[in-house]
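Changelog-adjacent note: as of this version, every example in the card shows the full chain rather than a window. The one below runs 333 residues end to end.
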Amino acid sequence: MISLLKARERLLSPLFSSSIRRRLSSNLFYSCEDARGSDVFIHPSAVVHPSAVIGKGVSVGPFCTVGSSVKLGNGCRLYPSSHIFGNTELGDSCVLMTGAVVGDELPGCTIIGVNNIIGHHAVVGVKCQDLKYKDGDECFLCIGNNNEIREFCSIHRSSKASDKTVIGDNNLIMGSCHIAHDCKIGDRNIFANNTLLAGHVIVEDYTHTAGATVVHQFCHIGSFAFIGGGSVVSQDVPKYMMVTGERAELRGLNLEGLRRNGLTMSEMKSLRAAYRKIFMSTETSSLEERLTKMEHNQELYSVPAVGAMLQSIRDSFAEGRRGICKFRQWLES
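Full-length structure tokens:
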């Protein structure tokens, strides 16, 4: 008991407590001023290369790594154990959550715009998983502004110097999604958890995938499309349409998505009429014949949304494309 009291006195002595205080201040405080500027905070345990370009108001947390060719825009925040490598540029106000890894020591670059969030343990801008990629080739990833990329996502660079993996603006990419090499993603899309896009997939704007969606390489997903949960998409999904199924089939128009995004009742009525004439006709004519007939229907074809839908269908049958998802032929009994 006496020895315990003596130990307590030593702990509380002014000299000892000041020593402890100094150690705590260098190791446990979240950040400290950096020589780069009074408004830059870098934790002592972080490894920041002196050649890295650090903007104003940047905060780098404990055990982070910032490589020699990295550029961090103003107001970026790196949470503990997040890492940035290679020729990588982050725009202003980007956030890397704990465990996130951005960039790779590869030829080429990763460019990320402003106000993006990279979630916990997401891996963005690393080498692709395409066996055709040759070591030493340049590869690229470009991400726009205001995207939220959630936990455990993976987004890969392109597979060749002549292409890029591209993601636009204002997308929500939920947990554990994968976007492979050379994909092109537009604006304001929502990918639910475990959406997997193979290489060279093109996704336009305002699309929505439900959970556990798988999209085959080189497929094209048109604007305002909806893909049901657990679907395997092996062919194109035209604009405005809804598909679902283990081998996804057309299931009508994404009317709720169209309504939410401001299409008028008149436009949706015209789209429904056109869809029925093309995909629910009781005639025995071919799809090509029904498309041609619809293009000569001045009342419907003059509606811009209908014209865009027909063009989306036709584009899917161009050389090198995969055609559209299957649909059920309606026949009179």
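Structural remarks: Confidence is low (pLDDT under 50) at residues 4-32.
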